[in-house]
Amino acid sequence: MSALARHAEAALALLVAMVWISPLMFAGWAAFHAPTDAINFNLAAPWTLENFRTAWDGAPWLRYFLNTFLLVTSVLAGQFFLCTLAGFAFAQVEIPGKDVIFVLVLLQLFILPEVLIVENYAVAAQLGLLDSILGIGAPYMASAFGIFLMRQTFKSVPKELDEAARVEGCSTLGVLWRVYVPAARSTYLAYALVSIATHWNNFLWPLIVTNSDTTRPLTVGLSIFAAPENGVDISVISAATIMVIAPLLILFLVFQRQFVQAFLRAGIK
Amino acid sequence: MLRYTTAAAMLAATTAIVNPAQAETELTMYYPIAVGGPLTAVVDGIVAEFEEQNPDISVEAIYAGNYDDTRIKALAALNSGDPAQLAVMFSIDAYDLIEQDLILPFDEVVTSDEEKAWLDSFYPALMANGTIEGQTWGVPFQRSTIVAYYNKDMFREAGLDPENPPKTWDELVETGKALTNDDHYGLMIPSTGYPYWMFQALAIQNGKELMSDDGLTTKFDDEKVVETLDFWKSLSTEHGVMPEGTVEWGTLRQAFLEGETAMMWHSTGNLTAVKNNAEFDFGVAMLPGNERLGSPTGGGNFYIFKDASEEERKAALELIKFMTSPEQAAKWSIATGYMGVSPAAYETEALKAYTAEFPPALVARDQLEHAVAEFSTFETARVREGLNNAIQATLTGEKSAEEALGEAQQSADRLLSNYR
Amino acid sequence: MTMTANATDFYHSERRRRAIHGWLLLTPTLVMLTAFAFYPSIATVWTSLFSRGTRRNPSEFVGLENYARLFEDPTFREVALNNILYAAVTIPISIAIALVMALWANSKIPARGFVRSAYFTPTVLPMIAAANLWLFFYTPGFGVLDQILSLFGAPSVNWLGQPGTALWAVCAVTVWKESGFFMIFYLAALQTIPEDLREAAEIEGASRWTYTRRVVLPLLMPTTLFVLVNALINSVKLIDHLFILTKGGPSNSTKLILYYIWESAFAFFDAPAAAAMTVIVLIVLGAVAALQFRLLDRRIHYQ
């Protein structure tokens, strides 16, 4: 291949990269400028933190951060617990009728909680889970994706390790805890990253199930903040948006390599 | 849920035993807001003041987004058994709220002569949407009409008299043409968010109401109404004074402030935000007329939910009385641009001083005399959605006004036939 | 004799013990799945067979009337068509872009780390936040897109305000959001392809294009299947940006099925209509599931 074509390709790759982050760049620009300066790309305009102050005062962001944090951790804890047990059962325990149940579980890959909003809402209401963090997280805890992932990982654990542990007198749960869980560490990491990203960003179901500031996660808080009756202030909204996305963005830029590597090792091909 | 209720009852019982003197009434109020951000602080301030004066009542005020969000959230809370005793919701939600048996007529809560006098103290035009079947279901809080904002600097540049904004449709087109150039449009009328509202204003000006008073009949396919929509469309296609396609409600204020348009029609609820941010000389005027002057009212009313206990109803009424009192109404009006809801509000020192210094704040009130009730029927959300779609389909050139409005009328008839 | 009997007994009781353990392990999951997937699915079907109750007309059994009404509803037809178009546009484009991105991110180009992060960034942004940013790109007149176009003398375009462009504008945001995510899967798969394959191909004198087409793409087939299913599901579920960008307008031109379900249930309070639509979506997803299981089956067998 000619050098020219190679350069052109690299330039194109870079250009696409620029396009891809341009909304973020624009938000970064707008958040630190007065709206008029931001819109007109007035490069000489002074930088300001005023938008952040206005945005920060406009909503209980700390509470939203806390809610999102609680949501993400509780979902993750629930998923780890349920998917570990179920994945282990499907991978290594002899149960009659296992295959049928496994197919039933996999069905959940397609019966999305998002699609079932109407009836899930009724269920959450009956269980007294409306307007609670648990109510936002509960429908996602038994994740078919997670179970499938753990099953695949546990299946690849050598049978000898299992037997050795049993000979030493480990119970079923003991084997799971001492042998399988440590062997699946990278899968857990990969799954955690996917789960955190998903639930940090989830919107529709939290919107439906929350009613008040004490439970609203960041996404719902942001959508309400950004949707006043009579119009929006581009700079303030950019500032709020930057505040909301910063923690996760930083987390993922730091863990980027691990993220891809984790995917690799988890064997999601 | 049963568990919740029991726990709450026990908790309440314990507090009553421990602290019998402070039997607090707790109120939860859902409300939407006009211009976002700082205004939640204004509401919080008013609520705090109320709590100070009424130590036996505590209020949780929950900001829930725009009007649609607020209705959805408040009703969801009711459905799920979460407490909610009152809410500020669209003045036009009354039919649906009655139909779902959720709200209480104020006539049942208002007992003393003083309270009756309070109920009579509001501008009658603002009571229109809340008065149904002879009873009062909603009390005005953040109420508006549509006004025309215009950029006086641009009027001067175009050689027009900045103190003489258009008063008729013909003048509107003419002025619009003079004000349209390569840099900006002459006029923008928003057509997302609340297209039906703007359309209703135009239809009234053209001498036709969109619905009957009982909320059972719409008149979308009336010749005059079709003509109205054709006029709206002609502003962009024929006269070129407005951009083609729809004009976004949410970003229109910014567009006006950026000088993208010389005139905009918008809620008077935007007044304070425009005043604070405009870097040019601007004016506010009543909407022009064709056969007559006119604008629908708009905005939110207070409602009291049926589920509230006797005690809570009383407390809710106290809160509403406080928030609509002349002093608070004046404060709210100055902070937002919404109207003072009663003539007495305009007699307060605060609002007198404010309007003397800033006369545009009086335009919405003066326009009230030409105002009519906002578009509202049974099944209002769906009927309105049909009308909105017809308006947008016409403005974007997908359908003719006659075809689109005909379809909207058909679907409205289908929806309303259950109620006739 | 006795020993064998004992051994068999032991074997049987051990088997039973294990089975009980297995069931115990599965119980929490099955309880949660029943509460939030199986029961609601069945309840949805049930709800869809009743009329909507109001003060005047209490709810009653109406059979398939809700479905009949749905198929007469022009909005539903439009929404279904929108969703099909949305899927047909976003799926192939985002997969193609993801593949190209992965090839770039895996090749030796300058600033590879930056490029990779940039492609990946939209994945971690909440759709609702991203939509706020895009809204200002699309705003006519002073929006970023219009300002850039006006540099080339193009007229102002009302991207979100016209039925002809609005759905495309929404699709663009989806593609932007999705392709970085899919890229990760391709990237992971690409890194498992041994270097020697490429070297061998080079020695054979194969061009890079030939190598990509004949060697890499076939090896990526399983990944493509996985990504495809994900993309299909997303074409139903990824609607958050509609709440900010268009709310389904103008005149329903960007309304997608899940948005309409939400609107029917929570804004119009018409749960039966929403339930009927949900059932239709479930049937479509079920068909996709059946297809996927057949493909998965094959993969599981050779594993």
Automatic annotation (TrEMBL), chain A:
TM annotation in the entry: 12-32, 64-88, 100-118, 124-149, 188-208, 234-255
From the Swiss-Prot or TrEMBL record, give the protein name: Carbohydrate ABC transporter permease
Q: Which organism is it from?
A: Flavimaribacter sediminis
Its Gene Ontology cellular component terms are: plasma membrane
**What's in the keyword line of the UniProt record?**
Cell membrane, Membrane, Transmembrane, Transmembrane helix, Transport
Topology in membrane? Multi-pass membrane protein
Domain ABC transmembrane type-1, by residue range, is 65-255
Decide whether keyword Ribosomal protein is in the record: no
The answer to keyword Lipid metabolism applying to this record is no
Q: Where in the cell is it found?
A: Cell membrane
TrEMBL record, chain B:
Q: Which SUPFAM superfamilies does its entry note?
A: Periplasmic binding protein-like II
Q: Where is this region: Disordered?
A: 400-420
Keyword Transport listed? The answer is no
Which residues does UniProt assign to the signal peptide?
A: 1-23
* Record-linked Gene3D superfamilies: Periplasmic binding protein-like II
The protein's UniProt keywords, in alphabetical order, are: Periplasm, Signal
Q: Give compartment(s).
A: Periplasm
Assigned GO CC terms: periplasmic space
Q: What is its main location?
A: periplasm
The record's annotation in InterPro entries points to: Bact_solute-bd_prot1, SBP
Q: Which family does it belong to?
A: Belongs to the bacterial solute-binding protein 1 family.
* Identification of the protein by name: ABC transporter substrate-binding protein
